[in-house]
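pasting input
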Amino acid sequence: MGKQMTEMLKGTLEGIVLAILSGRPAYGYEITASLRDKGFADIAEGTVYALLIRIEKRGLVDVEKVPSEKGPPRKVYSLNGQGRDHLDEFWGTWSFLTQRLEQLHDEGR
Amino acid sequence: MGKQMTEMLKGTLEGIVLAILSGRPAYGYEITASLRDKGFADIAEGTVYALLIRIEKRGLVDVEKVPSEKGPPRKVYSLNGQGRDHLDEFWGTWSFLTQRLEQLHDEGR
DNA sequence: CCCACTATTCAGTGTTACTATGTACTGGTA
DNA sequence: TACCAGTACATAGTAACACTGAATAGTGGG
């Protein structure tokens, strides 16, 4: 992954994962695959799992352990009320940033 | 500043400052004021100065010391060729991110 | 029996923005 | 004179985050 992308993902990746979970509950391995599909090809598994543990500790998601047919049990994460609030905040912050940057980009020509 | 914004600025602030410098050369104190004008009210001076030193070490900007009438000499930074390339890369990475997130945001309703 | 795939965890690292403080120069004012 | 506000830059220490690399564990196929 480019170093620029790595830095830009800080703070953003959390929002991305919360947004994915806002659609439906999912487990780590699944989310990693989903990210790859969405174009984030080089996000390491370890990164996603660490993020999930973080948002769990903050109380943004509920967790349920579900047995898998193909491997160890899955930890299925679902967005709760607090998580939904946090996601709303995220979109607010994000749109603020995009507006400022769009303006800067337009000024630059 | 919100913690979310703090994290999201990582990687982005550098691009913002480079974009400002792409318009015209500027010095730290001036850039900090410019950021306040642009809506980034709570960015600490120390943050900007540290960033400027960083991009100087990476060779993205040229520096010239210019005496000031109102205080210590100013360090005026101007974007050089390498900085311009880096800024282009930044916009590329940024637009990739915004596209993915826009899509995610639209899916979320 | 080993390998590929599924699934999670964790210690150590590098980068970044923030906090808090200090330094230095000028001009106005009490 | 002494002090303070404004200008201008620097830096040590901290917290947060994504990445690297590796380990662990379960299942099924060659």
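fyi The first strand of chain A starts at residue 26 and ends at 27.
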